[in-house]
Amino acid sequence: MKIILVKGDITKQQVDAVVNAANSTLQGGGGVDGAIHRAGGKAIIEECLEIRNRQGGCPTGEAVITTAGNMPAVFVIHTVGPVYEGGHHGEPEKLANCYLNSLKLAAENKIKTIAFPNISTGVYGYPKKEAAQIAITTVKNNLFKGIEEIRFVCFDDENYTLYNEILTQ
Ligand code: ADP
Q1: Helical pair 128-141 and 157-167, crossing angle rounded to 10 deg
Q2: N or C: which end of the chain has fewer CB within 10 A?
Q3: What range does the domain containing 116 cover?
């Protein structure tokens, strides 16, 4: 199992699954969510709507899976990060659960390669360094059988530098 760091656009990644920092309605949004829905096309939103009708969306920290539509990936794992409200509202556990539950769902679906964005560090306002530490620790502590590569895809320089520092410590 290898952990890889890249700077770039998650929608372009050649992996089995890309993770989406979705919101609980699963209706799409801005940031990485918007980019994934634009790149993947309407097959993704159709499957999201089916999930919504079945289970009423996706709670914070949990994850659901759909097709990746027109992207190079096969699946999108949609997980809902916490909105940062100062750090004392269970945000660290909820953010860790995003990574954990995405990896569990990946393992259940025989996914070998998975790419994560920097969940909650955009509009949801999670401090980037703390979020990076949680992401890396959670992934390292949950190396599920069958997953061969975990790729952190950083869109901005700040996240890339932070991940690079922590991963090379
Ligand atoms: P959240 O609501 O969880 O904070 P955002 O989409 O606002 O989600 O931001 C999460 C992270 O995704 C941010 O660090 C942002 O820079 C990054 N991001 C935005 N677009 C892309 C993309 N196309 N590929 C990878 N990461 C992206």
Answers
A1: 40
A2: C
A3: 2-167
